[in-house]
């Protein structure tokens, strides 16, 4: 038996380890997660998601859906801390080119149990103002 090693250096996210219970991914900067490219939020309806910032900078953007519309918030991540995104919370990450994060989630998390919310121009401006 040997110890496996995983890495990912390209843009975006790749699941580098997965078993029947959970998956680990490496998420690097990509244009859609840049402050100039952000245009949507996502939510995983059945599962939490964990993020750990290992390099660079990231702001977690989130939104609560209310009867009066979306209420946006932001958390500036600190390196080596674990951030939990609870199931069904709208969220996205805004990163810089040198950013690298680890994400951990249930292996059953997929687009079949997740949603994407396209942001309008006014919502994008709110998001950008929070960063």
Summarize the structure.
It contains one helix and ten strands.
Secondary-structure blueprint:
Elements: E1 12-18, E2 22-28, E3 40-44, E4 49-55, E5 58-66, E6 69-76, E7 82-85, E8 90-95, E9 100-106, E10 114-118, H1 121-130
Antiparallel strand pairs: 1-2, 2-9, 3-10, 4-7, 4-9, 5-6, 5-8
Question: Care to describe what's here?
Answer:
By secondary structure, the chain is mainly β. The radius of gyration is 15 Å and the shape is globular. The strands form three sheets. Strands 1-2-9-4-7 form a five-stranded antiparallel β-sheet, with no helix packed on it. The model has no long low-confidence stretch (mean pLDDT 95). The protein has one domain: Jelly Rolls (Sandwich). The protein is built from one helix and ten strands.
Task: Supply the number of structural domains.
Answer: 1
How far is it from the N-terminal to the C-terminal residue, by CA?
46 Å
Q: Let me know the number of strands.
A: 10
Total helices: the number is 1
Structural class: mainly beta
SSE topology string = EEEEEEEEEEH
Task: Report the CATH superfamily.
Answer: Jelly Rolls
The biggest sheet amounts to: 5 strands, antiparallel
> What would you report as the Rg, rounded to the nearest angstrom?
15 Å
Strand % is: over 45%
Keywords:
3-stranded antiparallel β-sheet, 50% strand, 10 strands, globular, mainly beta, Jelly Rolls, 131 residues
